[in-house]
Design a protein that fits this description.
By secondary structure, this protein is an alpha+beta fold. The protein is 35% helix and 9% strand. The chain has a two-stranded parallel ribbon. The longest helix is centred in the middle third of the chain and has 13 residues. The radius of gyration is 13 Å and the shape is flat.
Length: 66
């Protein structure tokens, strides 16, 4: 049976509307926690997206890194 988590089209089709999807090609699951570049490639970007901006713009309610 195919692992649905590694099936990108299957996974993204089931995420809620408004989800921001960022693909980090060279990353696997644990890289988002332990890779030396995780802060630069994932966390800084995710925090920027989720943090309310000064302007009255709609912000993402969910970010998914794949």
């Amino acid at each position: 049976e195919k692992d649905e988590i590694s099936d990108i089209p299957h996974l993204t089709a089931r995420l809620p509307r408004g989800t921001v999807i960022e693909v980090v090609e060279e990353y696997e699951h644990l890289d988002f926690l332990w890779a030396p570049s995780a802060k630069q490639l994932a966390w800084d970007h995710m925090i920027k997206i989720l943090k309310p901006s000064q302007k009255k713009t709609k912000r993402a309610s969910m970010v998914s890194f794949i």
